[in-house]
Amino acid sequence: MNQTxxxxxxxxxxxxxxxxxxxxxxxxxKQPGDYVEQYEPICELITDKVTxxxxxxxxxxxxxxxxxxxVTAAVGAPICIIAESRQDQTWxxxxxxxxxxxxxxxxxxxxxxxxxxMRQRYSPAVQRLAWEHGIELSLLQGTGLGGRITxxxxxxAIAARQGAHIPGTTPExxxxxxxxxxVSAPSGRDPVHGLWTDVKPSSQEVVKLPVRTTGLHxxxxxxxKIEIEGERGxxxxxxxxxxxxxxxxASRTRQSVTEIPHAWxxxxxxxxxxxxxxxxxxxxxxxxxxxxxxYLAFVLKAVVNAIKDYPIMNSVWGVDKIxxxxxxNISLLVGTEDFVVSPVIKNADQKNIAGLAREIDDLTxxxxxxxxxxxxxxxxxxTVNNTGSFGSxxxxxxxxxxxxxxxxxxxxxxxxxxxxxxxxxxxxxxxCLSLDHRILDGVICxxxxxxxxxxxxxxxxxTQLY
Length: 466
Known about the structure:
Layout: E1 2-5, E2 8-12, E3 22-28, E4 35-36, E5 41-46, E6 51-55, E7 60-65, E8 72-74, E9 78-84, H1 100-106, H2 124-133, H3 151-161, E10 183-184, E11 206-208, E12 227-229, E13 236-238, H4 244-259, E14 262-270, H5 272-289, H6 295-309, E15 315-317, E16 322-324, E17 330-332, E18 334-335, E19 340-341, E20 344-345, H7 353-368, E21 382-385, E22 405-409, E23 413-419, E24 422-436, H8 442-457
Parallel strand pairs: 17-21, 21-22
Antiparallel strand pairs: 1-2, 2-9, 3-5, 3-8, 4-7, 5-6, 7-9, 10-11, 11-12, 12-13, 14-24, 15-16, 17-20, 18-19, 22-24, 23-24
């Protein structure tokens, strides 16, 4: 994971999984000058499946950040340098928060001032920070690899200018970007997104920074975006930076709909007895286990038992072969306000309803908190999504590539139903299935859904959780 040089240890992107070739730095938890203990998290790594904290392989002082936040690095590529405790501390004792001029002369990156190959390459985080504080990047001296300007370079310039104007910066306008105060719009190229705009500097035309990251919710830490008002002031646009996780979701879903010929079918099930059973058991289960007994645990048990009867549902396309998986590993789709993760319940067919409930609670809770490991998101063979949790009654899910099918459990709704020529009010639910038509056909999927329906409708007051 690292290699030792005279000035410290280069910490590299670890090989977290066999299929992983790169990772994106989501957030640095330590900054240059901070002392780091061995195995203490130094940064967050974002992969196409999960965000995980990266522990330090050595103990010492973080002296340099090579890869800035938001930048992707290949597995094995160096991302920072740590001067180990047993090594010469001359390198790590460099000041980290002097004035900009002092920092430029004392920072180790300037020892190789002749290398300016990265001088004009700015990360989005650096561009955004510089624009918000009126810093001219072309006038700063970069301390990063190849003369690259880092976030710390900009922060030092901002901190130093609070006392007096220094070379390499421009006077900061009297503005504080917030929810209510407009800021003057820059003309020409937008430094955050690299887009040309028709906005010219004037007292009437302004740029407002909205607080919404999407149209669905409010965020305490809004993504950087710009709203440009139209000529008549009645229309505008949002620019939202695509996060690494959102980019991974886009790539996965595009791959699925491009390579897999999707087909869709749906069936309705009467879960009145299941509702009665859960209402009877949920309070005792809560006291005994400390977690909620959700409908999803019963659904997973019904699905797993149906897969045992129709194992072709648990397969993937292998070009000249159909690969049927022996282990039944159920992927769950856990949604947050900004992204979706898919933790996996391994060997779900070997667990009872109570065991599935515990797995569901643990994986969803840690998934929303961003605490899942990469191993916990891999190996899924069939996906179940509880779309009914947010009120959906019908959906057309995209298959979790490269699996053969995905099933959604919709919202339970009371409906008038005809039973033996009489009308009764029953609790009904829709089960929606998207299938890979290269592997599966309507006949086998219809039988599979019928078996899931039968399993759900067979629950009664005698059903055992353990």
